[in-house]
Design brief:
The complex is a heterodimer of chains A (246) and B (325). Chain A is mostly helical and 246 residues long. In chain A, 75% of the residues lie in helices and 0% in strands. Chain A has one domain (2-240). Chain A has twelve helices and no strands. In chain A, helix 3 runs parallel beside helix 8 and helix 8 packs across helix 9. Chain A is globular and about 60 Å long. Chain B is of the alpha/beta class and 325 residues long. Chain B folds into two domains: 2-221, 3-Layer(aba) Sandwich (Rossmann fold), CATH 3.40.50.300; 227-303, Alpha-Beta Plaits, CATH 3.30.70. Chain B is built from eleven helices and 14 strands. Chain B has helices spanning 40-47, 69-75, 91-101, 106-119, 135-147, 165-178, 191-197, 215-221, 236-244, 283-293, 307-324; strands spanning 2-10, 15-24, 29-33, 55-60, 63-64, 76-79, 153-157, 183-188, 200-205, 208-213, 227-233, 249-255, 269-276, 297-303. In chain B, a hairpin with a 2-residue loop joins strand 4 (55-60) and strand 5. In chain B, helix 3 (91-101) packs across helix 4. The chains are: A mainly alpha (246), B alpha/beta (325). The interface between A and B is medium-sized, with 24 and 32 residues.
Chain lengths: 246, 325
């Protein structure tokens, strides 16, 4: 455990030593700020669910996916390219600890990235004093699904990064992979057969977000995202171990 | 300390290490020497547990490094080729990260880091960012990192690559000093380095060990006919004739004459190479002749084949063998 924390700290420090982290943060906050404001302005004077404000804006989620691709791309690809992976993997730490350390580093960065958006809701509460009572439950569940999806997609990004030594390939690969997962339900219309459509509806992230943003907590997506995260962490460990046998 | 038993490492295209067996004793400094692509780096990676052997096993103190990988890594200090480092970190930061990762207790960490910085000459760059350091400092930092957890075994892959001559000398001196306390295995393609540091040298080519011995003995083994260089001033024909008659001399080869000579005589300095029978030392006899004839003698030395020649001979012949296979 101490090893994982040591690796996590180094990973976080590495993020904040590079300009890309700040660029990602700024762009992400601008996009999510707009995603928050737009429905607010559009539905001026109408009654809307609080969860609709941030979590149902498609731009916000595209920004999330892009941010995840950028956060995870250097994790293994960069270390492989510069050769520091050799230093890391010959230190007395297990491959699992290395993978978990990096995964946790990316996850913590993701939390730091998304946490400031909570200020929008607080600001709304402070500024719009005349507004009807603000229901906090959909906000909490909204963040829950955001971090669940984040933890799963980051695991996918870590996995893709372990496959290549090019950061660009890792970023593009990750973005494509998580986009397919995320926007899977758009393929629903093209698929024949009710069964296939129903399966896609269960897997579709947009469907999950719609539920959670209304304050409905469904355990099925929670299990889905967490088990996918575990699977991809495990797969990454296997990819790292495979160096020994290649 | 290390025992390597019939280790083969096969990559998709070729065998990088082919059925190698050897043993290294505690406190020895052993060098692996070979041209590029001989399999040195792969062997170092196998020893450092970065790669697993396709066949065979590697034992450190009788324990398989692959099965007890973490235990082995705690005892090994490994310096990979090109000394990879995190460019965005500071020297102090990096050392403390590595020390913690290698399980050093926090209190001992500080003390040990100071020790390593002094030993490796990093004191004046401790606050600098690694990416801005010169190659030499990077190499020294990586070396400090490999030593920080007081390993028993040091595995160094090209420890002086990319350093300037002064730094090379300093690093070699450091390794020699370390060799008194640690077991050192190093890979290099510099013969001078192997000759200067190692007590035992393995010469590798095409993934195999083609020769192994102390540097001196390796040279002796392959020396063949020894030769002696003589520089003498005297009547050329007579000198050559006399030298030819010395017992043990096979041939006398005059080397190009030099301008100028001793003030007293008309004779000029001339240089000869005497090829002798193996094992014969003809130098006293040559001196005797010069003294008896009153010919000034200004050089009399045995020409030794250096490791470079041995290396070329061995790797070239092994290369030919490979072609015939």
């Amino acid at each position: 455990m101490t090893n994982i924390i040591i690796l996590l700290k180094r990973q976080l420090r590495a993020y904040f030593h590079t300009p890309i982290a700040y660029v990602v943060m700024v762009v992400f906050l601008v996009v999510s700020g707009l995603s928050f404001c737009r429905p607010l302005v559009q539905h001026l004077g109408e009654q809307i669910g609080i969860g609709q404000l941030l979590f149902s804006a498609p731009y916000f989620w595209v920004a999330v996916l892009a941010a995840i691709a950028l956060i995870t791309m250097p994790l293994f690809a960069e270390e492989r390219r510069t050769g520091t992976l050799e230093m890391l993997l010959t230190a007395p730490v297990t491959d699992l600890q290395v993978v978990l350390g990096k995964y946790a580093g990316a996850l913590v960065f993701f939390l730091l990235l998304t946490m400031p958006t909570a200020a929008y809701f607080i600001l709304l509460k402070v500024l719009a004093s005349g507004m009807a009572t603000l229901d906090f439950a959909p906000i909490v569940t909204g963040y829950l699904i955001l971090w669940l999806i984040g933890s799963c997609f980051i695991a996918i990004g870590v996995f893709v990064s372990a496959l290549t030594r090019s950061q660009v390939v890792a970023a593009i690969g990750c973005f494509i992979a998580v986009s397919i997962l995320f926007f899977m339900d758009t393929a629903r219309l093209a698929l024949p057969g009710a069964a296939a459509q129903e399966v896609l509806a269960y897997l579709s992230s947009t469907q999950h977000i719609r539920d959670f943003a209304q304050g409905i907590v469904d355990t099925r997506p929670i299990v889905l995202y967490l088990s996918l995260a575990v699977f991809f962490v495990f797969a990454t460990v296997k990819v790292i171990e495979a160096r020994q046998w290649k | 300390m290390i025992k390597v038993e019939h280790v083969t490492k096969r990559f998709a295209s070729a065998k990088a290490v082919d059925n190698i067996s050897f043993e290294v004793l505690r406190g020895e400094i052993v060098g692996f020497l070979g041209p590029n692509g001989a399999g040195k780096t792969t062997l170092m990676r196998l020893l450092a547990t970065y790669l697993a052997p396709t066949q065979g096993r590697i034992l450190i103190d009788g324990r398989d490094v692959f099965l007890h990988s973490l235990d082995a890594r705690r005892r090994i200090g490994y310096l990979p080729e090109n000394a990879p480092l995190y460019p965005e970190m500071r020297v102090d930061e990096y050392l403390s990260f590595r020390a913690k990762l290698k399980g050093m207790p926090r209190r001992k960490c500080r003390e040990r880091m100071e020790e390593m910085k002094v030993l490796c000459g990093l004191k004046d760059v401790e606050r600098r960012i690694i990416g801005q350091l010169s190659k030499g400092y990077g190499q020294r930092l990586a070396l400090a990192d490999s030593l920080i957890h007081s390993p028993e075994l040091l595995i160094l892959d090209e420890p002086t690559l990319g350093l300037d001559p002064n730094q090379i000398r300093a690093v070699r001196e450091l390794i020699r000093t370390l060799g008194r306390r640690f077991t050192v295995v190093l890979a290099t393609h510099s013969l001078a380095e192997a000759e200067a540091i190692c007590q035992r040298v393995f010469i590798m080519n095409h993934g195999r060990i083609v020769a192994s011995d102390s540097p001196e003995r390796l040279m002796l083994q392959l020396q063949g006919n020894a030769s002696v260089a003589v520089e003498i001033a005297g009547p050329p024909d007579e000198v050559a004739e006399r030298l030819r008659r010395v017992s043990g001399v096979l041939r006398v080869l005059p080397v190009e004459p030099e301008i100028g000579g001793p003030e007293s005589g008309s004779a000029q300095w001339r240089r000869y190479r005497l090829e002798c029978q193996p094992g014969a030392d003809i130098r006293p006899a040559v001196f005797g002749i010069a003294a008896a004839q009153g010919w000034p003698l200004r050089e009399l030395s045995r020409e030794t084949l250096d490791l470079e020649d041995v290396f070329i001979k061995l790797t070239a012949s092994a290369g030919r063998g490979q072609v015939h296979d």
